[in-house]
Amino acid sequence: MANFITADTHFGHASILHGLRPGFASIEEHDAMLIEAWNSTVQPGDTVYHLGDFALSTPEYAGKIFRRLNGRKILIAGNHDRKNRKLGWAEQHDGIREISVEDRHVVLCHYPMRSWPRAYRGSLHLFGHTHGLLPGTTQSQDVGVDVWSYRPVTLSQILERMAASDTQPEERVLTR
After folding, report:
1. CATH code at 107?
2. Which pTM does this prediction carry?
3. Is residue 152 within 8 Å of residue 48, measured between CB atoms?
4. 27, 29, 100, 159: least buried by Cβ within 10 Å?
5. How many domains does the structure of the chain reveal?
6. What is the domain extent for residue 100?
7. Residues with Cβ < 8 Å from 65, sequence gap 6 or more?
8. Running DSSP on this structure, what letter comes out for residue 53?
9. b/e string for 33-62 if b means 16 or more Cβ within 10 A?
10. Per-residue model confidence (pLDDT) at position 174
11. % of the chain exceeding 70 in pLDDT
């Protein structure tokens, strides 16, 4: 059983096609591709931490999508998740959620932070919301689908990308 992290799927959100995801002919095409990418990556026994903005649609439409997706799903709510609270999440959290994955302390939040709990001790921060507009650092990374070929990712994949960054988080620079 593996752990995956993702954000900003925006299922059912037709307006997202006009700016951030213009390569799709329709929201149905967009959603079908995201479902395929998710299910080809995530197995039924895996856990997926979704860092917000799951869907912007009717609760019925979001529910149909939710039930088709593999894995045990945990929501760290974003700004578009008010209607997504009753979908059957294994857990739901507002604000930040601190977890341990592969012996690493990880701070999950829909929004990016310039400083986060235990950053000066090497803690990682994973976020969404910005759709790839903010660069990652050696300890923080956007995990939204816009950044990761429209699929959930593992911590190992995220760590590889962080290792390629030359940018230190501000708190690490200031506390040395």
Report:
1. 3.60.21.10
2. 0.96
3. yes
4. 100
5. 1
6. 3-174
7. 11, 12, 31, 35, 55
8. -
9. bbbebbeebbeeebbbbbbbbbbbbeeebb
10. 63
11. 97
